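Late entry, evening session. Most of the bench is empty. Finally got around to the prediction I had been postponing all week. Sequence below, unchanged from the version circulated by S.P.
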Amino acid sequence: MNIFGFDAAQHRVRTEIYAGITTFLTMAYILAVNPSIFSALEPQGMPSGAVFTATVLASVVGTLAMALHAKKPFGLAPGMGINAFFVFGVCLGMGYSWQMALTAVFIEGLLFILLSLFKVREQIANAIPTGMKSAIGGGIGLFISYIGLQHCGIVIADENTQVTLANFNTPEVQLALIGFVICGLMVVRDIRGGLLWGILLTALVGIPMGVTHVGEIFSAPPSLAPIFLRFEWHNILTWDMLIVVMTFLFIDLFDTIGTVIAVSLKAGMVDKDGKVDGVGRMLMADAVATTAGACLGTSTTTTYVESAAGVAVGGRTGLTAFVVAVCFLLSLFFAPLFLAIPAAATGPALVIVGVMMCANTVGIDWDDQTEAIPAFVTMLMMPLSYSISDGIMLGTIMYVLMKVATGKKGLRQISPTMWVMFVIFVLRYVIRAIDN
């Protein structure tokens, strides 16, 4: 078990298995969502079935890298948000081919491997102040709760107020409310693997309600051939390619760093100086996953914040990630069974995980406004902008400005890396404003 960083004196196999299955169930929606998003590119020759297979295999490769190289309990899969940017931003919005977009993701992955080898990403992660790291954990807790509420249909879009509470008159929303009670009882009663059992029991309750549909169990995976290694090399030295690569790089860099910091805090994988244990290996596994995912035919593969669900039930080693990878591999052949678990069953679990992650906010010095204001901006902007990276960037800008406002004492608290990040982030928003 040393291959996974498992220590029999500190860890339990049953707990790690529970954690792995729990994480997988909270991530499994990507198996349906990713092909659905990429279906918009079917007229251009990118079959949704092939994307499903690529999604599974990219998740397996990335999560195995995390299990074996980093030995941490995190699952990886094609990232939400960045997959939409791939399809609707790069391909349909900018008019580039999906082959060109895959090439950009591949180049991004290679750049990430280089940045990880030279420990640039690790330096950025460790340079973020302790209070900001706590805020990132709390912010992602709010973000993942918001995602859960959206997925189970309790929070819906509204023309006037952007979002609003749904009417409780649909079976899906009613099942989600039942799921909150079930998952909540499991957690407060401290039942081992409570979130996992809560998800499964909610899914079972959904059968007579007509929300959980169990039909075909086994199906052969669609062919990967139409999208495997379909790169487009003739335009790699163009300005357009540079823009797309840097956009992918920027979004993924801070999404991943934010997720790794937040979930590591929850798992207690942070030393007394606030540095994340093994962050270099985790980021390298993430970089390898992105490169492999591009070869397989899907968008950037990244560490999933839903990994916090497995950590919440006790997952601490690479064995948890290995179980996640096995579940993904099984889903390649049992997709109908795994996809039968509705969002109304996993959404409540994500909200409860969000509650647990908000415990990180005790590390924020709320009496020091130069710490409290940037922390609050970080937490607030993650769910409101629907972006972990924007939350981190805006919080960092605010942190530097608040410290500068206090004079020499505050200036001494700003590290050189934070100054570099501040300048880059400000330039990014200036360029975005000019482009728009």
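Two things to note before I forget:
The first strand starts at residue 76 and ends at 78.
Residues 403 and 412 are 9 Å apart (CA to CA).
Will write this up properly tomorrow.
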